[in-house]
Write a structure and sequence with these properties.
mainly alpha, globular
Length: about 280
């Protein structure tokens, strides 16, 4: 007697289902998806000829960029610019995270604001996320002038858009039991949020904040391209003057700092959230 529930029969039924002939509508959907992909490739200027001819050019760049410029004066100047970059990132991320909490309270459904306020704030956060951080840097360069302050303000706005959305979602997903218990005792909405919702969301807040710091560090490295301070201006000058060894030094410094921040952030996330769990 054949065992119809054997792993071989189960696998055969799965394969039959997996390779089942698609319906006409599904087939048209697949064709439309392929058309969209090829249309996007055409709009992006994809060229196999350029791909094939790029290795010699990249090899030429690598030959002119290596070894990196390790002149002590150059390293000293770049190091100070990298410190400025970290200052922009940390200051902007910290202020952005702090301001994200009240914004998220207005965006979270069923906490302290009505549906209209929730929708308006969420739309505003979507608009902030839709605008690239380098575009915000350009706006603030016009508003406050060249320099790191414009970059810091751009990081603040970008962090609010990032953390505000996730903080709101985290508070909406928090266990409702403690909040309902406090509400039953007659506690005000703000008391419920402060004593139940925010403490319950704190591990998620910490994780999101650390991700926001990583994002801020990566963003701040290129804000100098538009005059918003940091090491990005050194990268632009290096390429503009065909000083590829210095440009390579900047690229390597950015890579080391960003990877280091990610490692430290991951370690801190594990330690802090692990302790709270």
């Amino acid at each position: 007697m054949t065992d119809t529930a054997s792993p071989r029969n189960e696998r055969a039924r799965f394969e039959l289902t997996r390779f089942e002939r698609p319906s006409a509508i599904s087939f048209l959907g697949y064709v439309l998806g392929l058309v969209i992909i090829f249309w996007c490739l055409a709009g992006a200027g994809f060229s196999l000829e350029k791909v094939a001819s790029s290795p010699p050019r990249f090899a030429d760049f690598a030959a002119r960029a290596f070894p990196p410029n390790l002149d002590p004066q150059v390293l000293s100047r770049l190091s100070w610019k990298m410190v400025e970059t970290l200052q922009i990132a940390v200051a902007g991320a910290v202020i952005g995270v702090i301001l994200s909490v009240p914004v998220a309270l207005l965006a979270a459904k069923g906490l302290i604001a009505g549906p209209w306020v929730n929708q308006i704030v969420r739309t505003g956060l979507s608009f902030i996320r839709a605008v690239p951080d380098i575009a915000w840097a350009l706006v603030f360069v016009v508003a406050v002038g060249l320099g790191p302050f414009a970059g810091m303000l751009a990081i603040v706005i970008d962090t609010i858009g990032f953390c505000g959305r996730f903080f709101a979602d985290d508070m909406e997903a928090t266990d409702k039991g403690p909040a309902e218990s406090l509400t039953a005792t007659g506690a005000r909405k703000l008391d419920v949020v402060a004593c139940a919702t925010i403490p319950g969301s704190l591990p998620a807040f910490i994780s999101t904040s650390l991700f926001a710091l990583e994002k801020a560090v990566r963003s701040s490295t290129i804000l100098g391209l538009v005059g918003a301070g940091g090491i990005g201006i050194e990268l632009k000058v290096g390429f503009d003057l065909f000083d590829y060894p210095t440009a390579m030094t900047v690229i390597l410094m950015i890579a080391v700092v960003v990877i280091g921040i990610e490692l430290v952030s991951g370690w801190a996330r594990t330690k802090i959230i692990g302790e709270q769990r």
